[in-house]
Amino acid sequence: MNAGWLTPTEAPDAPAPVSVIRLVLPQGEHITADIADRFAAQARVEAGGVPQPILLVITGVASLSRGARAVLSRSRTASSIAVVGGSAVDRVLANFLIGGEPAPCPTRYFGNEDAALAWLLGPAHDG
What we know:
Layout: E1 2-9, E2 18-24, E3 30-31, H1 33-47, E4 52-57, E5 63-64, H2 66-73, E6 78-84, H3 88-98, E7 107-110, H4 113-120
Parallel strand pairs: 2-4, 3-5, 4-6, 6-7
Antiparallel strand pairs: 1-2
Domain DUF7793: 24-120
Protein name: DUF7793 domain-containing protein
Organism: Arthrobacter subterraneus
């Protein structure tokens, strides 16, 4: 499982460093509810009960099941979520993921991690 912190990251105008949980879904995999639940559990451990910005990398994922979408969309661990992918297929999968239940926090798709991090660490998303 590829999960961890990007620590510390200096946010523009932030009084202190801000941490981001980075979750990377496995490339070429069909993401099921069980796989999504393992990643969600890891995010809960990493967050330690405090909502944190999450960078969710879906680059190269083969598919996302409805069950995976349900697990990922009901997260209460995140203060904001940036979904990152690099292809048209990734964008379609992100639209499927984001287009389910109303997100519990601000959620957007980005084509690269730099733009995603800038958004996550911006003033409106400082957690």
